[in-house]
Amino acid sequence: MPHPVHLDIRGFGPTVFCHGTPRDDEEVVLVDSSLERWAQVLDGLDDSIRTVVMGHTHMPFLRLVDRRLCINPGSVGMPYGRPGGSWALLHNGQVHLRHTPVDTDAAVEAIATDSTYPDARTWADTYLRARFSDADALRAFAPRDGRGEAHP
Known about the structure:
Blueprint: E1 5-9, E2 13-17, H1 35-42, E3 51-53, E4 61-65, E5 68-72, E6 85-91, E7 94-100, H2 104-114, H3 120-128, H4 134-141
Parallel strand pairs: 2-3, 3-5
Antiparallel strand pairs: 1-2, 4-5, 6-7
């Protein structure tokens, strides 16, 4: 898939969609990243782009960064903080962070039964049940954001 994707969204205008950041698919930026860090990852974007939708950290947030609206819709399959699917609806200039409950027991069982991934049941039980909190994830991702060491 192309990275990043540029779309014109009604109510938002030119909008960038990416996995990590607009400049790097694997780069990490967090809700509590410094303004200096945000400036780095958004550097080079055309001034007409006022909305950036990104992910990679699986933690939903909505943040204004130097006049740009930055959105992380979260994750459906590997959430941090609480089980279920987190996603965002962009409609007529409004952002709605949404959460949809899922049958976690059924999802864990389906992955354990159908996947060839090593120790699939343990992985699914850990990640689909959101056993790691948002605070755990922020601490774990911090070194990739240029801050200190990871904490278990």
